[in-house]
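Appendix B. Raw example, untouched.
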Amino acid sequence: NYCVNGEERTCEKTDCYTKKEANSCPKGTIIKYYVRENEYHYFYVLHDDGKKITMQQRENTIRNIAWHAGENDNTKGPDTALSLLEAATSTWTNVNVIEYALGETTLYENQYTGCVMENDNIVCNTNTYILGERKARARMITALEAKSTGCLPYTTASANHMTCPEWMYNYLFESKNYGGSYDDKTENENGIFVNRYWTMSASSNGSNVWHVDGEGNMHHDSSNDTRNNYGARAVVEINK
């Protein structure tokens, strides 16, 4: 389904996945996909190069996890979240195996995984992670990849925030408004609902991690990367 504004009542049926032209499936198109026999999930298209489609799961794949479990050290990268996501999707035999090395393999336009903001632009010009090569059925979205979907500067005065298209966050909060039945919101120790998911990217100095929240903002402000009430969404690749 191609959904005009992210709300499923506006969806129109599409057969874009049968076409071999690049960008046949617009960003934000919903695809119901069987990740293995008798198990399907809904995904949003991130990009389509004509040969394969890269998609992110519509809801959080796993919930209540930390980006990493270390103290004030992001150099390992998202070792906790990524490992848990890989384990949760290891049986998804109908998606491609993704092989990459953080900081060495270009993930869409994102060669490096440490990122900074310069004049409202995400700049990835160095790698800060020491995680080794990965071979898995799923990964997490990167900051530049999220920007490629349409995440734009939140304000020119606040270069550490970007606003994202509605379909990037509409199942984080009040999902019933969009056709869902479960909200990916959790309650922290103060009774405040927290609804967001991690990206794979941190600032190049390793101090802050990029994440998407339920109000449609992508941040790398003062998020605590060891906090365990965030989620992660599987990014997968399938052949056309």
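End of appendix B.
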